[in-house]
Design a protein that fits this description.
The chain is of the alpha/beta class. 43% of the residues lie in helices and 16% in strands. It folds into 2 domains: 195 residues, D-Maltodextrin-Binding Protein, domain 2; 187 residues, Periplasmic binding protein-like II (D-Maltodextrin-Binding Protein, domain 2). It holds the Pfam family SBP_bac_1.
């Protein structure tokens, strides 16, 4: 119901904004940006909060941009809570920022509303679209039209405790069958588990599709498909049958990074964000990273990415594009990703910074070309909420996988039909 109201209201807003702007024309070419009475054009950039180190990096990038674009000033707004709700409300009210962050999982639904500016007409050859990792840029594209460009990303990689592996005399697994086997040798009762798991769709999506099934078909839940069930069953069995895998709450930790850092799991599958966390919180742990083990001979991982997008109702589109193209261009992206908090979505920048050959991050960069981006249609939020609600009961041994996911799928699709 909310979605219908949201789209309808945006339609009215778009008409109003169109009326205001109908008498204006804008050259998106190489013409210098006009200034009002000699004052620089002010562009608003909205995003969520980040660590002090990341905030400092962004401040530096924005300063560099303003130094090289004296006709443009950037007003940076941090939305600390309920980010998407606040952004949507402001867009509806005609007070949306000129440029803002958009997570890939939210992109399809927002593109449908028409509030995002199509960007193809702004892109010139020197922007080098082919330099972006393909799965990442496709997450913000529809029918050949780009609506955003990714500012960075993380895939998932296999973190492993080098000392535990050496003590157990096992090698780093390259297949999922090997992971399950070495987990048995790495497990020590309930003190240490071979593998720390995240039983949720955002982490298990690529696993669910590894046998050829599809989690989403025609924008509806399809995870009760037998191929999906067959792919997920070994993941559950490692916890319930082998007892060589556990989730963080089983060992009194908040997430798998903490579980791994405390030595309660010999392996976890985590993202780039875990590296600075482990290095600062558990500096004594000796760990390595590898690509996620293959399933049925096929490589797979997840990718999580956020783009800069432009408000279609912005009255400063020319300046907004200058900002976006700098932030997602090679120069701005190099500065933004220079500390490794986020990986560069441009291949050339990853190579220049050495991340593709880095002992740790190299595995994450290697996964980008084949990663499954956490985004699939406008109904994915409904689909994954219902999946997670039932999958936890399976993981706890309270329900059979087929029964639980059948119920979850039916509930999700009923909710989708009622929208």
């Amino acid at each position: 119901m909310f979605k219908k109201k949201w789209v309808a209201t945006l339609g009215i807003s778009a008409l109003l904004v169109g009326g205001v702007l109908s008498g204006c024309s804008e050259d998106t070419g190489d013409k210098a940006i006009k200034v009002d009475g000699g004052k620089p054009v002010e562009v608003t950039l909205a995003g969520w909060g980040s660590s002090p180190e990341e905030a400092e990096l962004l401040s530096q990038v924005l300063k560099d941009f303003e130094d090289s674009h004296p006709n443009i000033k950037v007003k940076h707004e941090v939305i600390a809570d309920q980010y998407m709700d606040v952004v949507k409300t402001r867009l509806i009210g005609g007070e949306g920022p000129d440029v803002f962050y958009l997570d890939a999982v939210e992109a399809p639904a927002l593109i449908e509303t028409g509030v995002l500016e199509p960007l193809n007409k702004y892109v010139k050859d020197d922007f080098d679209l082919n330099d972006f990792e393909k799965p990442l840029i496709e997450a913000f594209q529809k029918d050949g039209t780009y609506y955003g460009f990714p500012k960075g990303y993380s895939t998932l990689g296999l973190f492993y405790n080098k000392k535990m592996f050496a003590d157990a005399g096992v090698k780093v697994p390259t297949t999922w069958d090997e992971l399950r086997e070495v987990s048995k040798k790495l497990t020590d009762g309930t003190n240490v588990y071979g593998f720390g798991q995240n039983p949720e769709l955002a982490r298990a999506y690529f696993i669910a599709e590894s046998f050829g099934g599809k989690v989403v078909v025609d924008n509806k839940a399809n995870f009760a498909d037998q191929k999906v069930l067959d792919a997920l069953q070994p993941y559950v069995d490692q916890h319930l049958v082998d007892k060589t895998a556990a989730q963080p709450s089983d060992v009194g930790t908040g997430w798998t990074g903490e579980m791994f850092g405390q030595g309660k799991a010999a392996m976890v599958i985590e993202g780039n964000w875990a590296i600075p966390y482990l290095d600062s919180t558990f500096p004594d742990i000796d760990y390595g990273m590898a690509e996620v083990p293959t399933i049925k001979g096929k490589k797979g991982t997840m990718a999580f990415t956020v783009a800069y997008v432009m408000n279609a109702a912005s009255e400063k589109k020319e300046a907004a594009w200058e900002l976006m193209s700098y932030l997602t261009g090679k120069e701005g992206m190099e500065t933004w990703t220079s500390k490794g908090f986020e990986l560069p979505s441009r291949k050339s920048v990853a190579e220049k910074l050495g991340y593709d050959k880095d002992e740790l991050r190299g595995a994450l960069v290697a996964g980008a070309p084949y990663a499954t981006v956490w985004s699939n249609g406008t109904n994915l939020p409904i689909i994954f909420n219902n999946f997670n609600n039932q999958f936890v009961s399976v993981y706890l041994g309270q329900s059979k996988l087929a029964d639980a996911l059948k119920e979850a799928q039916e509930t999700a699709n009923k909710e989708i039909d009622k929208q």
